[in-house]
Amino acid sequence: MSKHARARSRRPRTSAAGRAPRRVALVAAFGLVAFGAGWAYVTDGSEQGSEAAARAATDARPRAVDRAARDTRRDPMQGLTGVGEATRARIPADSRQLLLVTGESRGSSRSTATLYTRPAPGADWVRGASWPARNGAKGWSAERTYGDLTSPEGVFELTDAGGLLAPPPGTRLPYDRDPAFVASGRGVNGESLEGAFDYVVAIDFNRRAGRSPLDPVKPEGEEKGGNIWLHVDHDGPSQGCVGLPKEAMVTVLETLDPAARPVIVMGPEGF
């Protein structure tokens, strides 16, 4: 037997009992490593969850568009000038066309007429064309009576039109062309009334909507008067109507649309 063989034969062998503690130590060491890795994962996941929660809280703030809408202050006048809060509240919410006639003072027969439109019900009004106008010789009254030479102040619908002349192209209001649209006599200051009723839009004050401006019926009684119209200005004050330049009447008739529920808002400044 060689020396190498004898040397190998004398090497002590490790018993199964001796190997067991080593295996336990390895398993224990592996378990500690795995536990540490798991704890690190849980800790890291918890931290990531906290960061995500923080981001979510930040993202819960109003979006830029929402903040802009919130911070936008609506015009308290809704785009109309010279009109009081009570009068604005009487304007129908679904009206999208409005003719504002503002008198220089309660007793003045001079005023300004301005067309307004808005893109949708409830939106602010957008100013359009404007013209000088004339109203009742003695100004305005919230309690008008027949013959008092005032124009009624308030908010009234515009539903019917007519005149001595044919309607301008594009007219959408019901239009009654009739030779009876001829003014008789003279104006308050003695001026001629010729051509005053070439174009007319009835103001729905003490009248039946849906009929010719010539309709004589006054539902609220004769004492209030009636036949209050928009018509062509005759270079003088009226008995209660509102006079506009002829080209303005053409524009009004071409613009007003029954689908937009047009109204006239008329009275002295600030009414």
TrEMBL record:
One of its GO terms (molecular function) is transferase activity. It comes from the Bacteria. Residues 1-13 have a biased composition (Basic residues). Signal peptide: none annotated. Residues 58-76 have a biased composition (Basic and acidic residues). Residues 1-20, 46-80 are annotated as: Disordered. This is YkuD domain-containing protein. It comes from Streptomyces subrutilus.
